[in-house]
Amino acid sequence: MSALLDRSEIARLIPHQGEMVLLERVVEWDREGLSATASSHLDRCNPLCRDGALSGVHALEYAAQAMAVHGALLLQTAMPRPERMQGGVLAAGRGLSFYVARLDELTGELAIRVECEFVQEKSMIYRFRVADQNDATVADGQAIVVGR
To answer: pTM of the entire structure?
Structure first.
């Protein structure tokens, strides 16, 4: 799958930098959502690792970065620059499910899909799904992002 955006382009859109840029590429996006891939969960130097392990709960961070990229792309195309939301925070999660204990035990790329369900001024609600290389769900749920 070819990339619409690579890791360096993603880094320009989100506040995370260096090794904290977890996504490798955006493979598709439109007003409704975004699909991305990542293999940074396989890197033993992943900054989210603790005692050599990367918890399955961190799948939420992969999804949150995809939400941030999607939000930035939407804002670039929909709003004049001075009125843009200057970043956001993951304010809440609902219906979160994590189906693996550790991400670092998976092989192959993660597929991250986020779908924007609601946008109002400086808040967005996303549904997300993170899947492994066999398309088995690793994590899913809903997240609320509030802008600054």
So the answer is: 0.91
